[in-house]
Amino acid sequence: MEILLIKENFMRIANYIFSFFVLMASCQSPKDKEKFKWNAGISSPKYYSAVPFVEYFYQGKSIAGASTSVGVGQGWGITMGGYTGGDIFKPVPDSVFVKWSCGVDDILYERGYKLPRKKMIQLFRKGAVNPNNAKIDDYTLLVGGTAPGGSVTIWMKAGQVITEIVKFKAHNKGIWMKGNIEYQKLMKEIKNSKEYINSETSIYLYLHGVPYSVWEKGEKKYDYDIGFSSEDGLVKPKIVTINSTDGSWYQSWTNKASINSIDIFKWENYNYLENNNLKRQEKLPVQIDLKWKITNQDKMMHGILVMPQNLEELVSKPYINSISNKTEYYNRIIIISYKGGGKGILWLTGKNKKIKLMEFIMLDSEDKNIKSYYSLPKGFVFPKWEGREPLKTPEIEYWQEK
Q1: Do residue 115 and residue 155 come from a single domain?
Q2: Which of 58, 70, 89, 190 could share a disulfide with 30, CB 3.0–4.6 Å?
Q3: Beta carbons within 8 Å of 9's beta carbon, 6+ residues apart
Q4: CA distances from 40 to 37, 97, 137, 379 (A)
Q5: Cβ neighbours around 249 below 10 Å, total
């Protein structure tokens, strides 16, 4: 009996000791030690590919990084991971090193840079509000973005929220693999091939150029929404992809629970609505990739809409409401389908005012004989090419309003 009592007392004491150490361990959580659970990712603008390497340091020691051996252009701020080094819980870095070859000009860029560590620690501790459910998401990803001209942006990402940390310019180290004759010969052959010249990427560069300054300064965001209306009620929007000047993009959907929703309007009844997206601020489109379905024919139509080059001026400039005499701003781009679904129009609308942006055409997305789906606005001016090497003119077909 005494042996059982002694054993019982021993187990009780052991449990107390174990609980004490568990409590002590919990008091010394990674957050108290300024260590957080995060990984590294890389990013480059859509249509402006790069082959990046990003590495993070703390007190001179490498703690994480990401890289790829092939060109990426996922989208500005949209991540791709190569490898991640270090422990699961890592210190917040105090510096970063980036190195990449740019697909636009074949220049090698690299630089080390000091990071605002105190600001980053605050963000790690605070987290970010998820726009879908209003809950707090932890920051778990550091994203290194590399763009033409040597521009670098470092972001922190928490769920769907991405927060800019710092911008800087990397150093130009000269032409990538300049001394490798075989590599240079191969690249020349590729860039002179019809496949490359007439690729989607080359056409995009021909239409929009290389906006070096937007990566240096950043692109503005505006409070606007997307709407849709069908003349015969038989056309339904399926995929609306908004491409921005800096090579970022997002998609809008008719589902009201999505971050960027599409409001459906009755024909010619484009009543004013406040921007009701979960995410209110977005960059303006420079190009819209649009697909809609003609429901009574079960047919998908496709169109690529190159935006008017004065769109930002129109959205940022106020107008006077003719009824209230108050200052207002345009807040919605409405996509219109005419009867039959083969042609449409874009309106820019606000309180008691709308202006026509452009007309466009839509073509059968399954017709293999169709090579181009582009519509250009009136007065469109092809941008002057600023790349290091001349850009070959693609064999592009497009429709343009007279």
Answers
A1: yes
A2: 89
A3: none
A4: 11, 12, 17, 44
A5: 22
